[in-house]
Amino acid sequence: MDPNPDFVLVFSLDPHYNSPVRGLPTDKGVKAKRSEQLRDEHSKLVDRLEGAGFAVQGRKGAQGTNTLLLFVKLDEHRVRQEATRERMSDWLHGLASPKPSPREPRDFAAEPVEESERLRLVYSVLTGPTTRSGAASIRSSASTGLTCGLPLATQLPPSPANKVEFPHLVDLFPPHNPASNKLWLKRWASVPTNSPTATGSRNPLDMLTIPQSELDDLKAHLGERVAMYFAFLSFYFRSLLFPSCLGLFFWVLGLPFHPLLALGLVGWSVLFVESWRLRERAISVQWGTYGLDRVEQTRPGFKGEGRTVDPVTGVEKELWSFRRTLTRALAGVPAFFVFVGFLGAVISSIYVVETLLGEVYDGPGKKFLTLIPTVLFVTLVPQVRALWEYAAGKLTNFENHPRQRDHEASLAIKTFALNFVAAYGNLLLTSYVYIPFGSFLVPHILGRLPSRHAAALSKSTSSSLQSGSFSINASKLHTQLVAYSLTAQITGAFVEVGVPYLKAKLLPKVQEKLHHTPSESEKKEHEQSIEEHEDEKDFLKRIREEQLMPTAVIFGEYAEMAQQLGYLVLFGVVWPVAPIWSLINNFFEIRSDAFKITSQARRPIPTREASIGPWLEVLGFISYFGALTASSLVYLYQPQATLPGTAAHYLSNLTHHNVTLPADGSVPFYTTRLSVAQSASLPPRSDAPPLMGALPPANGSFVALDAIKSTLLTAAVVALASSHAYLVVRALARWLLARLAWDGSVASDLVRRRELELKRAWMDEHGLRLAPNEMARRALGWAGEDPDEEAKREGEGYKVGAVGDPADAAANIEGLPEFWRRDENGQGLVQAVGKTE
């Protein structure tokens, strides 16, 4: 039996947990007071829930958690009232929707309430600020009755400093719908199509995306936020076809760092971002969330300085100035730079260790020592990121944003900014520091080490220091990109699916180890005190398993996709087939995310959403930054035909390949602008055997260094020009796509129609839907006049006294002047043209 509760509240039965009663737990008096406080708190909580219209049932929590599960279900009449209130508010504030404009109360209340809509409304009753009973104002979008004012799940467990009303209320979550989850996974186990049969789809590309009907079902089941994420993931997955084909073409031809490849990837990213901008707008119109910010409620947890009246709606609200939020946000900027500086120092240090152990050291145990940088990176970088995520959450709460949308945007920007350094820091160091200046920096670093450590690193350390040179690994950028992009996808899949699966299997055993295993007598006593019906056991077993699961968070999924897009756009010219691996990964990502949400995490609390939020701007920034990196990498590393000369010996050592020089020196070979700059200081060729990988010493090194700096400066100018061209292309793409895909579309017509219908409804309410002549008659007081008098008035003209102020241009005409009653001479003049006397 499944009683289908709306929410499950987790109530701690530990009297010492977060208790407001101070004192030592061993004190018998304190223990008794805490137990009494626990009972009073539970009784008060149940009364609050029942007073708001909830049916409440309590059952024992998961084994070892010492908790009570309170199952709550809101009265159907209250749910219908809340749904009617929300729909009236949406229509009143002009949210675009495909639904026809209402004409009677039934149009607001009779439409079925979807599962996600019900849970969202129930959640608002549970967590909304406590209100008095009474009808709600359609202007304020307030609840239709009593609300519970419980803490949010994201703010639990509460701390003693919060002084919450129910300190033992540690969590709340909606239970899964097993039937819907099973059907969802079954449909998505195969490639989705727009028709029941695979042959019914006319467009083969439809097999690579989630049809709109599936997204609509998902929205009804889990809410707009989850459905919008899968809509984005499906759109991104299908969009990867073009860069995959483009990259495969250049990879087969052996043309990395090609300008057309860079232009194709950056241009694709522009079209992808702008196309999705229109796509999400159309989806939000279909789901009735376009313009959601107009009805967005105050963010739970927001605290103003006082109360004020909204000048538009006339509703009382919290008083808070944006300047206060901005000031607090600026106060957190130094903390961000501290974290960025620390993370940059950690990544740079690990990079140096990796270079010395992997490319300088040639002693025993090298295979094992080269794993040290990887261990350091995996150990330290995630810890810094986790610490920043905690700090970013605290800083964002300190900013005190009134609306949840602004709160999430601020948090997303903080999270992405540090993740950008962690994800792309090594690749940027390799591209713009190691390969250009490695021949100078590595010997310099070795020179800073004690001589015994430098000698232990490499047998050739002394000769390298004397010559001031070092043979760099020119293929390191390609190797790093392959490793990072593939590793990120594999580890991401394991963390998303494997770790939750292992936690679900191991956590119950850990709980048993942490808490004493009850004896047989205790078990019998427990069974006697808490009687569970036989038909409830399967249901309670499932709920207790869900209690131990983590909460599904969509925020991290967007961060993962943004990072993947960055590898493709920023460094796709290095490894052209990277989009293919992303395409393959995302095919399984769609299904693994569905499996994780249904089986490895709690059901997410339904939330309305009109966009992917701040992540759209993050994707736009990645696309813009990709224009800079792609153009500069092409300029620095594009292979070009060069005749053999003094640079050939250096290039042979630099690339660890032998360059065969023709006898006459007429056959060209391929090199790059950066390599030419690095070889600018080579002396004339001599018969002495060259030092392997050595650049010329002394003054020649400064010439090469100046040439490298000049080349990098030119690359920066190329990147700057590319960024300006990018802005022009993006503006043009946005304009064209808006004209081609948005203007005249069904979604666009619905938006225009809803705005027009709101004004028409207002005119109907005030009896103003009249013809212009009738409107003028009533406005000027002519409505009761006799028709003959009206005709006479029209013949004589308007009178100032009857109309109004003399400043009215139409009112200043008292009658037709004599000029207009004279004969009209125009026709005679025209006929006289061309005639002679």
From TrEMBL:
Residues 101-113 have a biased composition (Basic and acidic residues). It is a multi-pass membrane protein. The chain crosses the membrane at residues 257-276, 329-353, 368-388, 409-435. It is found in: Membrane. Keywords: Membrane, Transmembrane, Transmembrane helix. InterPro entries: Anoctamin, Anoctamin_N_fung, Anoctamin_TM. This is Calcium-activated chloride channel-domain-containing protein. It comes from the Eukaryota. Residues 4-135 form the Anoctamin alpha-beta plait domain. Residues 91-113, 514-536, 783-803 are annotated as: Disordered. Its main location: membrane. One of its GO terms (molecular function) is chloride channel activity. GO terms for cellular component: cortical endoplasmic reticulum; membrane. Residues 219-738 form the Anoctamin transmembrane domain. It comes from Rhodotorula diobovata.
